[in-house]
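Cross-posting from the modeling subforum.

Setting up a comparison between two proteins and wanted a second pair of eyes on the formatting. Protein 1 (sequence, then structure tokens):
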Amino acid sequence: MKRYFPKILIMLFTIAVITAIMVFSENSLQSSSKSTETCLSCHEDEGLTYEKDGKTVSLYVDKKLYSKSVHAGAECEDCHLGYNPDEIPHSKTSAKVDCKTCHDDLKGIEKSVHGKVDCYECHTKHDVKPVKEIDQTKNCLSCHKSRNIQQYSSSIHAKKNIGCEKCHNGGHNSVSISKKEVTRVCGTCHSANQMALKNSVHHTVLKGGNKNAPVCTDCHGAHNVLRSKVSIESEGCLNCHLNEKLFPGDAKGSAKFVAEYKTSVHASLRKGEHEAAGCVDCHGDHMIQNPDDPKSATKRARQIETCGKCHSEVVEKFNKSKHGEELMKGNKDAPACTDCHGEHGIQSTLLSDDFSKLNIADKCLSCHKDGKIPHKNYKGEEELITGYENSVHYQALKEGNNDAPTCSNCHGAHEMTPYNDPASKINKMNIANTCGESGCHVKQLEEYTGSIHQTGVLEGNKDAPTCNNCHGNHGILTKNIDNKLQKSNDLINLCSNCHASVEMIERNQLPTKVSESYKESFHGLATRGGLKEAANCESCHGNHNIRASKDSLSSINKKNLPETCGQCHPGASEILISSKIHLTNIKEDSPWTYWVTRFYLVLIFGIIGFMLIHNFLDYRKKKMLKKKA
């Protein structure tokens, strides 16, 4: 018994202490409850008010809300210190509520932006909710009613439930954000963009002490958080870069230079629901580099890559072109996109006068004015590209004929490739189709199609002529001014370039002496004598639809000769038509002509010979008689 006596005493003592605590707590709760009930007996009255500084202030306390608040277990006098409950109204003796008497975490709050704000402005007075249940952003917006801050409600941050406290620390340590701190604060979520911005020209300028250098909020806004390219440009990029005080002058980079964008096709064009190209599409968004930086998106060497983000099909063609190849090689004379289209003031190629056919020609000639091409004309002279200015095509454009071709019609707009590229529009295999495109020489293409010349071209015969072999490349002349295809002698020489060439005749197994036989014929002699009506090559063979005599569609086919010859010789006899035209072997082709020619030669030389002998003998006889006399 003695052994367990101490333990029994300890147990009894513990029970006594617990009982005392329970009794004390119950009395305290009853006292607290009675104290609160006493206060609420008056303050439950919704009409309870008092006058302060000329304003009526409500003293109503909602019992239901208070009973659910985190302060439900506290007495009114725990917060409302120093008042006399027997003195009515209590306001004369009451002191201001000081939350710091209970909440130690409020120490230092006076240093925050909310240091002079009463706690109840955010937490309310009597229906104080747990922190987790408090909508801090809603509280903030209830006080901060400026238009700038209220725009938060429609921002991407609001949609993703990113509240004010995320940026401003929230709670009791809320801070305003200086311009230097903006990038760091935004970087807590947007770290990749923060790193990009730190390597941009904007950050470099900011580090240099330029107060006008932009930070995140200058472009995206502080609370509305702009995401649309158009909005960012108008609020951010253009807001700064159109400021002539910040960017004076007329040079590249000036406000006037940038202002050209506002009238460009990029600023106005919309493709379906997609916005047009804006500043960030070309210059980048956060990693905007100095234009002189080799890695800059607008650097000449990277323009193709930058423009290709939108114009991929065009860039694909350009990369395969001669211009693209030379640009990739680093040729400073090779054009990039901006050389033809401009930079900020880019206009629609369909609507702008800058891209009229006439202006395109002038633009191309500004680079190619002294350039030469390997093709030689029918006289063996090398043609100049500037010969285009004297051509019928260019003259037609100057007269307002927009159907006339310009450089891009023949060479392509972006896919201009050398003539030896099989895909080139000016490759020998493709020239006829290029010239015969819709709206151009369609009829001539129809005539040329199936001709002996086209057949040779399609078979890969390098000697077979196509359009430019006869008409030239750039210096195509009008029909009535010194045209090589209008004068008979020049036309004959043009055809003779091929049909009188021994090497070409042997390579292609062509009839020999065709050119020589024509020149010795009546037609040839008459043409050399200046008779304009005399038949030349074109008169019999045609121009574009030249076919072999065996071809039933040929103008020199036996069935068609009456009509062909009848153009000049109506009612031409069947004997004339059936006889061979080009007498390459006169003894076999026309024996009568051969012997008649021989007879005339013998007769002519015989008469002249006898006359010379007669004159010589007569002279000799007279000289002898003179000596005898």
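Protein 2 (same layout):
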Amino acid sequence: MVFTPFFQLPRITGLHIFLRIHQVQDDGLDYLINFTANYVKTVGNHSITALAGYEFQRITSEWVRAGNTNFPIDAFEYNNLGAGSGDKDVASSATERAIASVFGRINYSYASKYLLTATLRTDGASNFNPDHRWGYFPSVSLAWRFIEESFMNGTREILSNGKLRGGYGQTGNSNIGNRTLNYFGTGEQYAFGNTGSTGMKLTELGNENITWETTSEWNIGLDLGFLNNRINLSAEYYDRIVSDLLVTNKKLASYNEITTMAANIGKTRGRGLELTLNTVNVQRKNFLWTSDFTFFTYEDRWEERDPDWVPAPYQSAKDPIRAVFNYRSDGLLQPGETVPAWQKGLLPGQIKLKKLDKDSEILGQKDMEMIGTNDPKFTFGFNNTLRYKDFDLNIYLYGEIGRLHGPSYYDDWIPYNYYAPQDKGLYNGSKNALNSWTMDKKNATIPNILTSNVGGGAGDYFIKEISFLRCRNITLGYIIPISKKIVNSLRITATVNNPFLISNYNGLDPETDYDTRRGNDNSIGNYSYPNVRTYSLGIDIKF
């Protein structure tokens, strides 16, 4: 058989291959040594457990890259990079860090009613200067199982568990890299006379005074059980302060060669409440239904700022960490209304903005204010499990209430974009443009499609509180009756993930459509990938 090609290659008398070949090698080692010793002692109603230990971890990495172009043939691959006649590409790096820890813990219990746990941990990190290398982080917790007290005997038929607990502790964070030394970069070209040379320049300014970021937290909790623990309720309140915050971009005066450096600056405070409710709703011979409900709310604020921090007129030293600042909107301008002096050129159907600063005739930063935060008012989860003979069904839902969110693409993608008025080209707009304000639809809430960024844009007109309820998954399982001589158990499952979502958000997904609008930053993220719905079948075999 003779094979005839579809086309004939021309005869090649010389060959020059413009091939780029790179070889990258990345090696890392992680050494870990851990020693612990335990002590247990019980005398009467007194029980003591103690632990002491030492841990050392050393992590090293080496990385090298080499490349070249314009090889005469491609047979060498990366085994003869010098054969190329093009621009060589060579780079390498090496890092090493270590952390050592000494720790101890004591647990004390008296009659299983009074509980005490105390710990002390000392950590040393190699990426800090020796004078600031070690951090000391103690913690203590107390608990009282008041259900064990004699005066609670009369409540046992209703109250089956009762525990009051509280604690205080500190933890440290050293995750900022090696920032104590000055770093110099190579590759800069300088001319000395008629000769070009490769030189170095300062690329990062070190700070010998950086040290551990410390999280200090106290909490108090209450655990209750009712009706032989068929109903269990747990409530916990916490107050957390993070001090000596580690940052890599503390600003320096502009006359410095390097204008930022790593430092410890500021302090934040977070407070929150968490509730958990576990119930056995129905318990019969062949049927069981259990539920788990969680509720969580929190608030994070600044306690201290960088001493060099210069606030905008609308900011304060103790604002929420994820605060949202903007102008306040005041509806749409209607025919016959007086055009605000600070929004000259505003047309009917366009958004009016409120003026807070009475000392100026134009909109400025003093007219902006905090309109809320990007934190939800509270979050919740609800899990249900039902079992009937060899069948089981699990349904898990969760959601958020009251998170501020900017406009979706339905609200914002109108023919003349509020936040990017320079984008006057043709592109697909939102169908909401069909419902926009016109002289025939003066009650419309969608602004005039000819809108412009007159004196401050849309303000908070499109920003609203978003809430949602999402079903994360539904799983149906069945245990197939089978002889134990074959397998111990055989269970098949069918699962659907993300079957439905209920929300007042009109975009694609309230969780993944991120909104980065902060004050004067009008960037909007409407291009993220949404939660997807998936279906799956599974089989679980235990031998």
